[in-house]
Amino acid sequence: MAAFRTLDDIGDVTGKRVLVRVDLNVPVADGAVTDATRIERVAPTILELADKKARVILLAHFGRPKDGPSPDLSLEPIARATAAVLRRDVGFAADCVGDKAAAAVAAMKDGDILLLENTRFHKGEEKNDDKFARALAANGDIFVNDAFSAAHRAHASTEGLARLMPAFAGRTMQAELEALEKGLGNPARPVVAIVGGAKVSTKIDLLTNLVKKVDALVIGGGMANTFLAANGTDIGKSLCEHDLGATARQIMIDAAEAGCAIVLPVDGVVAREFKANAPNETVPVASVPADAMILDVGTKSVDAVDAWIDRAATLVWNGPLGAFEIEPFDRATVAVAKHAAARTRAGKLVSVAGGGDTVAALNHAGVADDFTYVSTAGGAFLEWMEGKVLPGVEVLRKA
């Protein structure tokens, strides 16, 4: 990772106050964290710094506070959950700037870990206000960003701090950047991308960028219906954005000019109602009944996708191939995920996946741990795939 400053470049941190931006925006019910995955992801960075006798001060946001501090969006319960994951004491300060934060930081000893209150309780956070960024910086000597998931936002705690003090990527950020470089930055070829999901309208920038960078683009989910309809296929009552037909056709033209194959379903699993275990049948896409809707791709389509994966050296995946949330319309996504996982385990494929639905689908298939890298970053992962500059990443680049 020569392009970015990492913990390998940080030097001696003994006694240094290290501000670490982490993503602790975890699901909470009845005051308890129900999924600690994001805490587990940042644990290596926190523990590495603490073990090197740094005074580790965690910065994080939680939810979307509207008008300043809100008890139900306090990070205090997250401090307890973080302590449980780290198996270390984690202090908590009732503010991220000002007297309360300063007093808590001043009381720290080498190797201590402290979580400051929700950065978004201050309007200066999302405005990337210089005065607020300087107030945050007053509590630290070094800045480490380990929250790739927030790196697409130019906020005070992601971008502003990095301009005010020595800044480095944490281990999770480093792993993410290395995986993304393998995925699209400088990938082994051929590169195949799978893009699924409901709507083309949410992924126009993504598709437009990918056709210039990959050798084959597999389109699945509801968005495939828009492409099929744009080609003149009657898709019955399937979910479709008919008004984006021209956009779909232009993407296909751009792909042809770039030498990128567009892989669309050749058959589909159709049903008359959208519910679990609804009566269904598999038909060619040219033979979808007028009163039916496509809810998954069929076995011939799966075979075609698997064949592309067999040819690929790199796979980038965002979005399911069908309505994977309900059986039996999860079959194609599960089958392709398992095939990609097997190729990855065999050392024949670099597989990078991300996006909320994608992570859920890979977990559902039981193969998330077999992929080369699965990003939990959501919006930041998508913007990276779209080819956009991520402010929180750019400020970590080596000069």
CATH homology group of the largest domain: Phosphoglycerate kinase, N-terminal domain
Distance between the termini: 13 Å
Number of helices: 14
CATH fold field value of the largest domain: Rossmann fold
Strand order across the largest sheet: 5-6-4-1-7-8
Question: Which class of the largest domain in CATH terms?
Answer: Alpha Beta
**How much helical structure, as a percent, in the residues?**
25-40%
Radius of gyration based on Cα positions: 23 Å
Judged by helices, strands and strand pairing, the structural class is: alpha/beta
Question: Which CATH architecture of the largest domain would you pick?
Answer: 3-Layer(aba) Sandwich
Q: How many strand segments?
A: 17
Low confidence ranges: none
Roughly what fraction of the amino acids lie in strands? 15-25%
Tell me the count of domains.
2
Mean pLDDT: 95
Q: What general form does the structure show?
A: elongated
Outline the biggest β-sheet.
6 strands, parallel
